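hey
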């Protein structure tokens, strides 16, 4: 099973949020294969530099960076050759759908269900789900 893990899920895991942490743990146990691409990696790295987001985190900056490295070691690198735009109301989320389609993902795991569920183009094989719904699928 392949999935795109949105940055908000990885951030949730860094903050110790239950379902988000479980999704990342499932990845580290090789229960599914997360897809990673250039745009998503840049987004992860950018957000991890925003110290104000992690004031409540139990993880230090170095620990968050190490968790990202471990997560990346489980990811399947995926190149995106085709852009499907316009598609999602928030332009910044289009890269997630493009990565999912390029890598043949079954799931896009996100907390941003409202925007991603309103895709103009439909991809029947791709399910946009919350981390809680994804964990039920495992």
């Amino acid at each position: 099973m392949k999935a795109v893990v949105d940055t908000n899920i990885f951030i949730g895991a860094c903050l110790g949020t239950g379902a988000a942490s479980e999704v990342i743990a499932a990845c580290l146990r090789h229960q599914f294969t997360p897809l990673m691409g250039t745009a998503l990696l840049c987004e992860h790295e950018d957000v991890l530099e925003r110290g104000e987001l992690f004031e409540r985190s139990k993880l230090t900056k170095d620990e968050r960076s190490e968790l990202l490295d471990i997560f990346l070691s489980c990811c399947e690198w995926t190149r995106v050759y085709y852009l499907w735009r316009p598609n999602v109301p928030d332009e910044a989320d289009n890269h997630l759908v493009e990565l999912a389609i390029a890598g043949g993902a079954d799931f896009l795991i996100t907390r941003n269900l409202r925007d991603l569920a309103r895709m103009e183009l439909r991809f029947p094989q791709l399910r946009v789900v919350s981390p809680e719904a994804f964990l039920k699928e495992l």
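Helices lie at 7-14, 18-28, 38-48, 61-74, 94-103, 113-116, 131-137. The chain has one domain: 2-137.
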